[in-house]
Automatic annotation (TrEMBL), chain B:
<dbReference type="Pfam" id="PF00528">
    <property type="entry name" value="BPD_transp_1"/>
</dbReference>
<keyword id="KW-0813">Transport</keyword>
<feature type="transmembrane region" description="Helical">
    <location>
        <begin position="265"/>
        <end position="289"/>
    </location>
</feature>
<keyword id="KW-1003">Cell membrane</keyword>
<dbReference type="InterPro" id="IPR000515">
    <property type="entry name" value="MetI-like"/>
</dbReference>
<feature type="transmembrane region" description="Helical">
    <location>
        <begin position="199"/>
        <end position="221"/>
    </location>
</feature>
<keyword id="KW-0812">Transmembrane</keyword>
<dbReference type="InterPro" id="IPR035906">
    <property type="entry name" value="MetI-like_sf"/>
</dbReference>
<feature type="transmembrane region" description="Helical">
    <location>
        <begin position="70"/>
        <end position="95"/>
    </location>
</feature>
From TrEMBL, chain C:
<keyword id="KW-1133">Transmembrane helix</keyword>
<feature type="transmembrane region" description="Helical">
    <location>
        <begin position="76"/>
        <end position="100"/>
    </location>
</feature>
<keyword id="KW-1003">Cell membrane</keyword>
<feature type="transmembrane region" description="Helical">
    <location>
        <begin position="148"/>
        <end position="166"/>
    </location>
</feature>
<dbReference type="Pfam" id="PF00528">
    <property type="entry name" value="BPD_transp_1"/>
</dbReference>
<keyword id="KW-0813">Transport</keyword>
<feature type="domain" description="ABC transmembrane type-1">
    <location>
        <begin position="77"/>
        <end position="267"/>
    </location>
</feature>
<protein>
    <submittedName>
        <fullName>Carbohydrate ABC transporter membrane protein 2 (CUT1 family)</fullName>
    </submittedName>
</protein>
<feature type="transmembrane region" description="Helical">
    <location>
        <begin position="187"/>
        <end position="209"/>
    </location>
</feature>
């Protein structure tokens, strides 16, 4: 503890941002590692500097961590009472963090904020943070809706007209088959990770039959919808490239004109922009097609900012509201061309003019939440792995789609009951 | 009292070790045992649940799958790894001087790399299309293989990395054992007209038995705790681990997932103790087999 | 007859050399390949550049510079080195003190104590990580070098290894020293330690490799970036959802491998001989 405060005060002196080290208050602020690198870090540090100038004597330490390390660090920190004061994480991990007491209930503080501030955020994202009356555990931060990245070189070589995105699932599948016939890969293996399976579920179904019913401890997945989704996986299986949508190998296949489609969030875009400059990659991003022309597949997922209970709570909450407010989120969006859940910031003219942001706003509008309802109870590890297992096994031909759906649902209910 | 004074210097000398061992190994192990009988998320008061954690695990699909994977993995990787190490040692031993040194060092090189590095390199060597292996398959006109996502190849892909990493270590130990075998034994065998192969079977292997037993025991104990390599090869995270259809799901991975992904530390501790019991049982079995074969 | 034998020998020799070289290629090539990935232009298609040799020195240096300037890699080197060196010193000193007693003397409860220590070798570290963490935290050692180092000092493996070596020290030498009037600690320091210098070197090397590659413990104990080890910095690049391209990820990894590789090239003879001894004596 002494080491830490010494280090903190040394840092405060080094930064020389006003305020004496004596009686200083220090906030630990944890973010994903890509928020703590390059230009993203520079902007975060600017926010911090502004906040420190408005609050003499306060120091904010920003700490970047890989996705898993962030959660592991918070859980370990909760166990020992050494929590970061302010942190971001995925809303899907929120229930675990509430369970270990890492997230403070900020309902009253939130309600005490001016209506003008509260109205800035995406309504659904705010609702996700407030699982029950009088309870709210987070402020929506960044987020994404699934985009379908298309490699135009590959598509054109396969004789596909790329002027419009695939109209519906049938059209999309036909394009994928053409790509395969032309000797390239159509799509990453969507059966490998939970999020890409959810994206495919969104093609046919919607949030009304997705997620968990915690009252009855059963899954809300509908057998008929899942059967139809599994049929799609069977159809896609021979067309896939092997690795998952998250795999770095997938980005490399796309960049080297071996892969036609990549469903993912906007964070891959900088890599693709760089490839466009260096090696002439031709690509665009559109919404993911749905079963019918008036529907879209894909998911939306949000990151949150949470604050830990403890003596720094008030200041931590203030900092959280500062970084999530419209002015900061608009600057963030402009710098990185990235969507976030501050709807007011997204609506600002020069932000809305950014194609990636505009498309993301549409995508968030059109897609379903990835693992609702949030913040009720930690989802047992077996839930996601069961979904992934049955989808992969069905794609491999071990079950018919009907059997796969039926057995998956039975096993999910067992998992939730156990 | 006199006894104590007589032995005091001894206890003073082992005291630093014992204090640290007690604090940072014995105490955590015992408290892990305590938590394994409790429902505990690391923060709240533990709730006593008796044997429930253990029964739940024994009935869980992922536990049986992890154990079955572990069994298959050990059944292949340990004999294969030792055979490769043994052959490498024989090969290096047949060289002399500078070349012996060169090959020995070259084969040892992978051992030096940090654990996470080997997995990261191989993840890319296995990558589809532009990965080294698939590129080579392409040269001979073969279909590309998705080594790390095809349930038929995943286990072997892991084993290959494993052997690549560990063979050099075991080779060096076996090599030293070879050097300790008196040369006149081979001389006598040669005079009796024994072939190279016969010499290996009748002289080298029996003389090496103690060394091989050490290497075998060490290999089995560490293989049972396999974690880093499959975790990184499958790109696992606390919420999703084990690769396609759990083909590379191993006990320590499942334990970490339940601890940090599901925040069930009681359950994870029980998992650890089931694994510990398995390790002790297998080690005891190895020692029993050795005693039995020595007596014969 | 002789020419046939000569032909057989030469076939055998050629085969032997071919095998030995082929295996050397298998063990070295992946490392060579990683270096080539780093020293090539990003996004260059494999069809044009299969990464069989380095193609762009400047691109590689740029990546290295980028990582050094953006991630605090140099500081992480320092922390990792301090972590490894302090652990080595502690493990050697504490372990050899205890091994001296266990190997050469009798005292009450010696057998049971040694047995318990050996049994702990079979408990997976994941079982103990949270209780150990809580204890370290209660001591106020989070984000500190002592938090990294001290919990790993009582190495059961180290004790086992040193005991194996010290058993070989003739009891006569101990007695002779005692008759010369040497105290208990002096015997340890002047007689036992010099005699097992090789074992100490081996243990030092194994400890170095193990602490350098250690990931999980630093991850939860040192949460602030000022205390990140090399493994943690690399972990930020290796994260499954990391938004970096292969060549940058490989650069971060390669930099982590440089110190152990250098260490090996400098001390290769000692390392290989030391490890060999640990196995054959055991």
């Amino acid at each position: 503890m002494t080491m830490r405060t010494t280090a903190a005060s040394l840092l405060a002196l080094a930064l020389a941002t006003g305020g004496s080290a004596a009686g200083a208050q220090t906030l630990e602020y944890w973010v994903y590692s890509d928020f703590a690198q390059g230009e993203a870090l520079a902007l975060q540090q600017e926010f911090i500097k502004e906040f420190q100038e408005a609050h003499p004597g306060v120091t904010v330490n920003i700490v970047g961590k890989g996705d898993d390390d962030l959660t592991a660090g918070q859980i370990a920190g909760a166990a020992s009472g050494n929590l970061p004061d302010v942190f971001m994480n995925a809303v899907g991990v929120g229930a675990q963090l509430v369970d270990v007491g890492a997230l403070a209930n900020i309902h009253d503080k939130w309600m005490a904020m001016p209506e003008e501030f509260r109205a800035q955020f995406n309504k659904g994202a705010v609702d996700n943070c407030a699982p029950r009356p009088e309870e709210m555990y987070c402020i929506p931060y960044t987020g994404y809706g699934t985009l379908l990245f298309r490699n135009l070189t590959v598509l054109e070589a396969a004789g596909i007209d790329t002027s419009a995105p695939p109209a519906d699932w049938a059209d999309w599948l036909a394009q994928m088959e053409k790509v395969k016939a032309a000797g390239k890969f159509a799509i990453p293996d969507q059966a490998l990770v939970f999020n890409s399976i959810a994206e495919m579920y969104g093609v046919t179904g919607d949030v009304s039959t997705w997620g968990i019913d915690w009252e009855s401890k059963t899954t809300r997945i509908d057998p008929a919808v899942m059967t139809s989704v599994l049929e799609k996986f069977v159809a896609m299986q021979p067309l896939t490239s092997g690795p998952s949508r998250n795999d770095q190998a997938t980005k490399d296949l796309f960049v080297t004109n071996q892969l036609a489609f990549h469903t993912i969030g906007p964070w891959v875009n900088p890599t693709y922009v760089e490839a466009a400059e260096n090696s002439g990659l031709k690509y665009d991003f559109v919404l993911m097609p749905g079963e019918t022309a008036d529907k879209h597949g894909g998911i939306k997922n949000f990151e949150i900012v949470g604050v830990a209970p403890g003596e720094n709570l008030d200041l931590a909450f203030e900092f959280a509201t500062y970084i999530t407010a419209k002015e900061q989120m608009a600057r963030w969006a402009k710098l990185l061309s990235r969507y976030n859940s501050n709807a007011a910031a997204m609506a600002e003219a020069d932000v809305a003019a950014l194609p990636l942001v505009a498309r993301s706003v549409e995508a968030v509008e059109a897609t379903m939440d990835v693992s609702p309802p949030y913040l009720i109870q930690p989802v047992p590890a077996c839930y996601q792995s069961t979904v992934v297992d049955y989808v992969s096994a069905t794609a491999d031909g071990e079950f018919t789609p009907e059997e796969g759906a039926e057995e998956m649902i039975a096993e999910l209910n067992d998992c939730l009951a156990g | 009292m006199r006894v104590l004074r007589h032995h005091l210097p001894h206890f003073l000398m082992i005291a630093p070790f014992l204090v640290l061992f007690g604090a940072f190994f014995l105490y955590p192990i015992l408290s892990g045992l305590y938590y394994s009988f409790h429902d505990w998320n690391g923060v709240r008061e533990p709730v006593y649940v008796g044997l429930e954690n253990y029964t739940r695990l024994l009935g869980s699909r992922d536990f049986s799958r992890a154990m079955w994977n572990l069994f298959q993995y050990i059944a292949i990787t340990v004999p294969l790894g030792l055979t490769v190490a043994f052959c490498l040692a024989l090969l290096v031993d047949s060289f002399t001087g500078r070349w012996a040194n060169f090959f020995r060092n070259a084969y040892f090189l992978p051992v030096v790399l940090p654990a996470f590095l080997a997995a990261t390199i191989w993840r890319w060597i296995y990558a589809p299309n532009f990965g080294l292996l698939n590129m080579m398959l392409g040269w001979v006109g073969a279909e590309p293989v998705s080594f790390l996502n095809d349930t038929d190849t995943m286990l072997y892909a892991l084993i290959a990395v494993d052997v690549w990493v560990s063979a050099g270590f075991n080779m060096v130990i076996i090599l030293a054992g070879l050097k300790n075998i008196p040369a006149d034994l081979y001389e006598a065998a040669r005079l009796d007209g024994a072939s190279k192969l016969q010499q290996v079977i009748h002289i080298t292997l029996p003389m090496l038995a103690p060394v091989l037993f050490f290497v075998l025991t060490y290999a089995v104990i560490s293989a049972m705790q396999v974690f880093d390599t499959p975790w990184l090869l499958t790109g696992s995270s606390f919420s999703e681990y084990g690769g396609r259809r759990g083909a590379l799901l191993f006990p320590v991975m499942d334990m970490m997932g339940r601890a940090f992904g599901g925040v069930q530390f009681g359950l994870a501790s029980a998992y650890g103790f089931l694994l510990t019991i398995a390790i002790i049982a297998v080690t005891a079995l190895l020692f029993a087999v050795r005693t039995w074969s020595n007596r014969r | 007859m002789t020419s046939a034998a000569a032909a057989r020998i030469s076939v055998w020799t050629v085969l032997k050399w071919a095998t030995a070289i082929a295996i050397a290629v298998i063990t070295i090539f992946p490392i060579w390949w990683m270096i080539n990935v780093v020293f090539s232009l990003p996004g260059e298609p494999v069809a044009i550049n299969p990464r069989l040799w380095p193609t762009s020195l400047s691109a590689g240096l740029e990546k290295i510079e980028m990582i050094f300037t953006q991630t605090g890699y140099l500081r992480a080197y320092g922390i990792s080195l301090a972590y490894a060196l302090l652990t080595i010193l502690g493990v050697l000193f504490i372990g050899s003190l205890a091994a001296f007693e266990f190997a050469l003397f009798d005292f009450p409860a010696k057998g049971p104590i040694f047995g318990i220590v050996m049994l702990s070798l079979m408990v997976p570290t994941a079982v103990t990580i949270i209780p150990t963490y809580l204890l370290t935290s209660n001591l106020g050692w989070l984000n500190s070098l002592q938090g990294l180092v001290v919990p790993g000092l009582a190495s059961a493996f180290g004790l086992f290894m040193l005991v194996q070596f010290m058993r070989a020290i003739p009891k006569d030498m101990i007695e002779a020293a005692r008759l010369d009037g040497a105290g208990h600690f002096q015997i340890y320091w002047h007689v036992a330690l010099p005699l097992c210098r090789n074992a100490l070197v081996t243990l030092a090397i194994l400890t170095f490799m193990q602490t350098w590659g250690n990931y999980m413990w630093p991850l939860i104990v040192t949460t602030s970036p000022e205390m990140y080890t090399v493994g943690q910095v690399v972990g930020m690049f290796n994260a499954p959802l990391s938004h970096q391209t292969v060549d940058v990820v490989m650069t971060a990894n390669l930099l982590a491998a440089v110190p152990p590789l250098l260490f090996f090239l400098i001390f290769q003879r000692k390392i290989v001989e030391g490890i060999a001894m640990s196995g054959t004596k055991g």
